Every structure is written in C-alpha cells, then in structure tokens.
C-alpha cells in the first residue's frame, strides 16, 4: 500500500475508535436517565 493510503487508513481507524471511546467515556461520566414509557 502507498504511504497516502496508510495515512488515510490510520486517520479513519482513529476517528472510528476515538469516537467510540469518547462516547463510552461520556456515558460513563454522565449516564442517561431512564425515560418513563407511556
């Protein structure tokens, strides 16, 4: 693979896994309050 392709792959992986980790940390810090059904 070319250098540009490797750099783009690393950026894409970082965005996906970084977003996942950020959402997990955000939910652990501020858990969602359960909503009443009905």
TrEMBL record:
Pfam families: MaAIMP_sms. InterPro entries: MaAIMP_sms. This is Methionine/alanine import family NSS transporter small subunit. The chain crosses the membrane at residues 6-27. Keywords: Membrane, Transmembrane, Transmembrane helix. It comes from Nocardia cyriacigeorgica.
């Amino acid at each position: 693979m070319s250098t540009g392709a490797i750099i783009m792959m690393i950026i894409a992986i970082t965005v996906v896994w970084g977003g996942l980790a950020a959402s997990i940390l955000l939910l652990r810090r501020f858990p969602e309050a359960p909503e009443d059904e009905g």
